[in-house]
Amino acid sequence: MATTSTRNVVIPLGLAQTLAWASSYYLPALLAAPMARELGLPTAGVFAAFSLALVVSALAGPVAGGLIDRHGGRRVLMGTSGLFALGLLGMSQARGLASLMLAWAVVGVAMGAGLYEAAFATVVRLYGQGARHAITGITLMGGLASTVGWPLTAWLEHHVGWRGACAVWALLHGVLGLPLHLCLPRTMARDAGAGPTPQELATAAPTEPPRPAPAPSMSSPAWTSFLLAVVFAITWFISTAMAAHLPAMLQAAGASAGASVAVGALVGPAQVAGRLLEFSLPRRVHPLWPARLAALAHPLGAVVMLLVGPVAAPLFALLHGAGNGILTIAKGTLPLVLFGPGGYGARQGWLMLPARVTQALAPFAFGLVLDHLHERALWFTAGLGLLCCAALLALRAGRFNPA
User: Fold this and answer.
1) Per-residue model confidence as pLDDT tens digits over 370-391
2) Which of 17, 84, 117 is nearest to 359 (CA)?
3) What is the pTM of this model?
4) Which of 7, 240, 276, 350 has the greatest count of CB atoms below 10 A from its CB?
5) Contacts of 258 (CB under 8 A, 6+ apart)
6) Among residues 351, 374, 266, which one has the least CA distance to residue 315?
7) What DSSP element (H or E) covers 343?
8) Given pLDDT bands bounded at 50, 70 and 90, which one contains residue 44?
């Protein structure tokens, strides 16, 4: 396989990820209410359709990861561009709960096969253990999805309605997403038991034979996998709950509707800043250390906002975004450095399956908590963040390949 410039892979994937996240994960926060009003549904019904998409994405993830392990990500990701477009177009034509749920189910398949985990598996398939920089680069660009997506969705909904907004996002997947994925390099089919790729050999230390990074010294692979699954499940729950309900939660705390959207738009730049901070750390710093500190960011921001009030909402958004940005990188790098690149896509799919389930529960479950506790619902997510940090502390850093 010919050497491919990392930049020529990261830029198309990063732009495509920004589009994919903005038009799926960040859509319900602004379109759920107008969808519910026109279709005669409770808002919870729209979030239930979104939750269905997340359940479908959980089931699609391991299958997509295995396909990327064997064939590379280009064809899989090109297919997701079509699925995103089909699902969003179907959403724009929904006439009731059944058609809305069917459209979200199609989008769910695209999410399971086309969001970060698939992008990470694609670059690991290309670069092996040396994919850490590429993973960070993709998340740097994808971190702007809420900053781009929420204002654009709000503008489209105001001018062409929620149906028009969905149709425009569908069109963007055809005219922008598909060509971006088409730019990715072709990769040869690879058997599950095949040895390292030339890229993996090239990124290994020249004086030593390539070897997978060892598992933490005091944790078995099964225990390590369990703890990682717990970390991913908690972080995805918090991230999804905030993505779906942050504007409403800030309004419950006393902020105006306009201020809530403006504060929510800070999350994206904060995610990028957090990822730049992680990227600037010496490469010999194990990814567990920034992940542990990042897990404390959301609880710290939540406590400050609960004690000070909505005037601290920007600080909360910045801390939440920065922590979430670093933890998103950790979802890609921790399995790589703890287990090595072999079978990365399928392993990532299975590790993320519980996270996708908690994602599916998050909009509805946190919505109930928000209805009962209002802004005090942040105590709940702050407690989850502390549990996530405890799970990361239970993992031992050990030695790893700092490529």
Assistant:
1) 888 887 888 999 999 999 999 9
2) 117
3) 0.76
4) 240
5) none
6) 266
7) none
8) confident
